[in-house]
Amino acid sequence: MTPRERIRKAMDFEPVDAIPWAENFYVETVSRFFSQGLPANEVMITDWKMEGYTLLNWPTFIGVDANSYFGCINFFGCVLPVDLATIPRFKQRKVGEDAKYEEYIMESGARSRIPKKGSRETTWYAMPQFYSFPVSDRNSWERYKERLNPEDLRRYPKDWDPDAYSEVFDQYQVGPTCLAMTGFYGFGAELMGIPNFNLAFYKDPELIRDMITHWEYLTIETTREAVEALRDKIDMVFWWEDMAEKHGPNISPKLYREFLLPHYKKVTAFLNKNSIRRIMMDSDGNTQPILDLVIEAGITGHWPLEVNSGMDVRLLRKRYGNKLFLSGNLDKREIAKGGQHMRNEIDSKLLPMKETGGYIVGLDHLVHVEFTVQRFKEYADYIKTKLAME
Amino acid sequence: MRLKDVLGEISTALANLEGAEKVQSLIEDALSQNIPVSEIVEKGLRPGLRQVGAKYETGEYFLAELLFAASILDEVMRFMKPKLDAQPMRKIGTILLGTVRGDMHDIGKNVFKMIAVSTGFEVNDLNVDVDPELFVQQSKQTGPDILGLSCLLTTALPEINVVIDLLRQSKIRDRVKVLIGGNAVTKEYAREVGADAAALDAVEGVDFCRGAVKS
């Protein structure tokens, strides 16, 4: 089996020759790995490109592929190139500073504070601190909506050609092909900030209804052409939400049912109609109180299943059977300790999940900077000996 | 409406998230019956808030409901401010609060702060990315009952230990209860570093603070 065939079968609860192993790396983790000996020449990707200014083709840095180096799958290795974000973006720029911080307008329009470079060692994912958001009420939402127009031609790439992309998707075999989307909670929280978005469910429910209805329209109508053209070549949907914390979901099952569920159902019906049935929700935190509704919404998979928030892949499998394929749940804190801690964590989860199928093994979040490259290599070397089915 | 009824109604309206307008109108009823502001707060609003906390703990309410309850309280407290200024409430304790160095997250900390203030604590919030020395200096200067350290990132977790060590070196560790909270903390970690408690959510944190000042 190719890695792509393997992960598709795992998501479908079909027999596999080995459990797929998937990870996502923070940019800073990889950067730190370089300083600890990760060979740049083996992970840097370059290609000949027209750089966008002239007709000249020229070797260009495309990015970094740490997944292939360590032997794990990347969910985002081959993503449908449809832009579901703010168009035009806000021009990201510095708008102020003091002795310790710089202040920026981000591309979403939010304002943030970031510690000055060199002031001390910091981690990018700890930052920035968002202190104001572009949507606060009906008027600001109406203005923002103009940047969320699905008809905008810039939502598709300059090289958009369904046949050419179809060929690329067919050839890709090192992981799943993916449609990446932002969910109804994640989008609102990103534009209003979590506290204000949550409060608006009570204080201005009509605003929430309008925002979510528009997001459904943007999601379906923006992706329609690509989804209908590539349909069965899209292996999975990666639906970012981040709608829970350690205690539970940020909104109650009651609010989820009333405000979000009908819109999820419309999007998943559209995807299903186009033969896309593997739909994975990305949410940190303890999502358990809403998982019945998530399944009712048409979502069929869940990542990353944070251990620190009480998620346990073995219990979830008992509770939900093959209604949800599961991905992640190796406690990053135990794995980063290495040695017996790492081996115990893998053995205690991977072995029982081999029995049930429908599992993609991996950490319960992105690969954090606590990992040294040596510890991550130790983890990679061990887990690869455990993936094959007996 | 009799005295006992109106205070109970205030409590129920807040606990059921019936909105600031409804709670405010019940407070007006109570004031028209010459019920002192302190009694409205102690026997109407605070029991209501405790019920909100209980509903959160049992999984009936979630973050959105906590935030809405806090916003109702904020609105009615602003309405009552002139009367409160005339009859100041006794604070039940003081909390020095902040997110540790290297961590810019503040939502959990702010929810904790809202509930703590509504419960009657005076909170001195140092914001996020706070240097350990500042926690210690402020602890010396203001003598809080509780020092609340928030931390979401596992990478910033060792900062909690740094603060507690500095408190020890400054010989003030035994003068303040240290409460840690946020996604990265665990009860086990609290024991490991010698914190007095780890709160897994804002409601549990405020419960600890109430207990700490009582003892």
What this model shows, in words?
- The complex is a heterodimer of chains A (390) and B (215).
- Chain A is α/β, with parallel strands linked by helices.
- Chain A has two domains: 3-85 and 135-384, TIM Barrel (Alpha-Beta Barrel); 91-133, no CATH class.
- Chain A is built from 15 helices and 13 strands.
- Chain A has helices at residues 3-11, 27-35, 40-43, 66-70, 138-145, 162-171, 184-192, 194-203, 205-230, 253-273, 291-296, 313-320, 332-337, 339-356, 373-384; strands at residues 44-50, 57-64, 78-79, 93-97, 101-105, 111-115, 129-132, 177-182, 236-240, 279-283, 301-304, 325-330, 359-363.
- The longest helix of chain A is centred in the middle third of the chain and has 26 residues, at 205-230.
- Chain A is globular and about 60 Å long.
- The two termini of chain A are 16 Å apart.
- The mean pLDDT of chain A is 95.
- Chain B has 215 residues and is α/β, with parallel strands linked by helices.
- Chain B has two domains: 3-86, Orthogonal Bundle (Methyltransferase, Methionine Synthase (B12-binding Domains), Chain A, domain 1), CATH 1.10.1240.10; 93-214, Rossmann fold (3-Layer(aba) Sandwich).
- Chain B is built from nine helices and five strands.
- In chain B, strands 2-1-3-4-5 form a five-stranded parallel sheet, sandwiched between helices.
- In chain B, helix 5 (107-119) links the parallel strand 1 and strand 2 (121-125).
- Chain B is elongated and about 55 Å long.
- The model of chain B has no long low-confidence stretch (mean pLDDT 92).
- At the A-B interface, helix 8 of A face helix 4 and helix 5 of B.
